[in-house]
Design brief:
Elements: E1 4-8, H1 12-23, E2 27-31, H2 39-46, E3 52-53, H3 57-62, H4 68-77, H5 80-89, E4 94-96, E5 101-104, H6 110-122, E6 126-128, E7 133-136, E8 142-144, E9 149-150, E10 154-157, H7 173-179, E11 184-190, E12 194-196, H8 200-206, E13 210-218, E14 221-229, E15 233-235, H9 237-241, H10 243-253, E16 256-261, H11 268-275, H12 284-291, H13 296-306, H14 314-319, E17 321-328, E18 336-341, E19 358-360, H15 374-392
Parallel strand pairs: 1-2, 1-10, 2-6, 10-19
Antiparallel strand pairs: 3-5, 4-5, 7-8, 8-9, 11-18, 12-15, 12-17, 13-14, 13-16, 14-15, 16-17
Helix pairs in contact: 1-15, 4-15
Bound molecules: flavin-adenine dinucleotide.
Length: about 400
């Protein structure tokens, strides 16, 4: 039996579902509201396209926090190694960066997307762009803006999160699904920056500059990585990795303090030994630059946090720079979205309990993870999982 399958949303999750289904001979139409497919995927390519991560699988799954248990099976069925092999199969060799992150050698999404769409085309997938899905009518048909309807046998929703709305995913589907009785967790920005009340001078001089090889602590968690000073506050990998905890702390207390260790590779004693030398006539800034190799940004940050007249124990001050975060940057520029369709609203096959025959995949599900390739990996894995579940329920399927 050849049922017709609609995939709504032409991002990584939807396209992977379309690949698995069309590869098994199913008739698939991808509906996408934008004039072209994979716009957020292409945007991810601007940062080098971190496809996945090479760390130990147990640690990998742990990155999904409370959602790890829901995603484990899907990730086992479509592993980081599978994703790497898939990219290579599309003619895009990959490499593992020093942090363990996996990238295509081109560091771009466009050649991969081009090869992928060509494969889907060869597998007979129909693409319908500028098709903005609005929900279902009383007859159970899919309804698109402008009034066109479709009556597939099965539907996969892969509509993305709610950040970077101009790329197509604006989260408008949440209202539609809520009206259908689907349980949703509220959207929140994930992997986004936090506001800091920088002094005007610091902001003007240092916005846009990176703090490299730092350690960032909040509560009992400490992470090494990079952060970037932004005009509004602070962003970057190490900040994103703590973002779920920081968001919760700010929601509860109105602010949260992170501590930056500017020299995590040195103990306080080692640093103190380097600073234990005569200053001569050097200004504090020159002394710090020479004795501890601090950059102008790092010296500026010390003064932002500890006051212009720095404390006598400079080593301790460098090892612990407290920065008060006063708010969370909005969804608009967050890299991903927390919240969405709750896992108790879908069955073990990712099918909506409130709408049998409708499956959900990708970022629209309620999980979050730090940057590092975990986002795309879970989108691909859940897209593949929904598709395989559809194949499995048919006689002659997988
Ligand atoms: C700047 C940036 C950099 C990133 N870098 C990385 C990275 O390096 N590594 C990584 O793992 N992740 C990265 N991500 C995250 C990653 O791109 C997303 O998690 C991923 O694209 C989500 O895939 P998806 O298929 O679930 O949703 P999306 O990619 O958002 O695709 C959903 C599609 O559905 C369409 N759609 C939405 N509503 C409708 C509707 N009503 N009707 C029809 N179509 C609709 C949208 O237009 C969109 O094309 C980055 C994100 C951003 C913004």
């Amino acid at each position: 039996m050849n049922e017709t399958i609609a995939v709504i949303g032409g991002g990584p999750a939807g396209l992977m579902a379309a690949e698995v289904l069309s590869g098994a001979g199913r008739t698939v139409t991808v509906y996408e509201r934008m004039p072209s497919l994979g716009r957020k995927f292409l945007m991810a390519g601007r940062g080098g396209l971190n496809l996945t991560h090479s760390e130990d699988f147990r640690a990998f799954v742990g990155r999904y926090g409370p959602a790890a248990e829901h995603l484990r099976r899907r990730l086992e069925a479509f592993t980081p190694a599978d994703l790497t092999a898939w990219a290579e199969g599309l003619g895009q060799p990959t490499f593992v960066g020093s942090s363990g992150r996996v990238f295509p050698r081109t560091l771009k999404a466009s050649p991969l997307l081009r090869a992928w769409l060509a494969r889907l085309d060869r597998q007979g997938v129909t693409f319908r762009t500028r098709m903005d899905w609005r929900g279902w009518n009383a007859a159970g048909e899919l309804v698109f803006a402008g009034g066109e309807t479709a009556r597939p046998d099965v539907t996969i929703l892969a509509l993305g999160g709610a950040s970077w709305a101009k790329l197509g995913s604006d989260g408008a589907w949440a209202q539609t699904l809520a009206e259908e009785g689907v349980a949703l967790a509220p959207f929140e920005p994930a992997n986004g920056g936090f506001t800091v009340d920088w002094s005007p001078m610091f902001r003007e001089r240092f916005a846009g500059q990176p703090l490299k090889a730092i350690a960032l602590s909040h509560g009992r968690r400490t992470l090494r990585g990079e952060a970037v000073v932004a005009a509004y506050g602070i962003e970057g990998g190490a900040v994103y990795a703590l973002s779920a905890d920081l968001r919760a702390a700010i929601a509860q207390a109105g602010s949260a303090t992170v501590e930056i260790d500017l020299r995590p590779g040195l103990t306080r004693e080692q640093l103190a030994a380097r600073l234990d030398r005569p200053r001569g006539g050097q200004s504090t800034a020159t002394f710090l630059r020479k004795a501890a190799k601090l950059s102008p940004l790092e010296i500026g940050l010390l003064r932002e946090a500890h006051g212009v007249a720095l404390p006598a124990d400079l080593a301790a001050a460098i090892k612990r720079v407290p920065i008060r975060l006063t708010g969370t940057q909005g969804l608009a520029r967050a890299i991903s979205t927390a919240g969405g369709v709750r896992f108790d609203a879908v069955d073990e096959n990712l099918m909506l309990k409130a709408r049998p025959g409708v499956y959900v995949a990708g970022e629209m599900l309620d999980w979050e993870a730090p940057t590092g390739g975990y986002l795309l990996q879970a989108c691909f894995a859940t897209g593949a999982a929904a598709a395989r579940a559809i194949l499995a329920r048919q006689p002659g399927g997988e």
